[in-house]
Description:
Layout: H1 2-8, H2 13-63, H3 73-77, E1 111-112, E2 115-116, H4 117-127, E3 163-168, E4 186-193, E5 199-201, H5 206-216, E6 226-227, H6 231-234, E7 258-261
Antiparallel strand pairs: 1-2, 3-4, 4-5, 4-7, 6-7
Amino acid sequence: MAARSRSLRGFSLVELSVVLVIIGLMVGGIMYGRSVIKAAELRKVNNQITQITGAIYAFRTKYSYLPGDMPNATKFWGALDGSTGTTNACSTTVGSGTLTCNGDGDNSLANITYASERLMAWKHMVNAGMVEGNYTGYGDGTLGGYTNSYADINSPKTIREGRVFLSTANSYTAVQQFPFDSGTQLILRIGGVIDNGTPRGPLFTPEEQSNLDSKYDDGKPAYGTMRGAINSYNGCSTTDVATTAAYAVSSSDRLCFIDLFL
């Protein structure tokens, strides 16, 4: 009976304290690990932004045109369509090597009659040795559309399966974005992909984007070079009023995508 009573006795306060301490350490370790992973992801995003913007500026300095908009690209790298680099084959043909097509040289990145300058931009920068990757320069129609963005096919991929997208303000509908400044301002977008292949889906929590914005710019979603979506679009900011908008950091949901105005 004595042995039985000993086996049924409860834990002492000391034993319970030890167990609680161990559980606390385990929970703390998990939370710390998550914060380390999140911080590493944001560093990767910041590094990618720096690399891509540097490549764009270097390309424009060397060739006097934006990548994708370059009207004489085929003189350097050969014509994808086998002739002028300005035919419909530019949006339907898989080229080999450096073969590409020309932009129209109007200092903007848009969908022109025979191709998407937004997508050709990545091909041009790879050809120039300014970014790494192997991009087609166009959107495969079998995947959903000739101007759509697909990670590691015609555009770079970022964390969480997000995409990087280039455009200019005059060829871009920004109802979900705080106002930008000029019709030809270059936009670098990092976001999750929505149905039409454009990265304007949420990818970051408001706190994550606020941290990136504070490191890269002014920490405000409506001003500066890095901006977030308006409140009525997906809740990334606290209000649609630019002068009072802040990132909605109380939310832990992924509500934000980045628009970087270069």
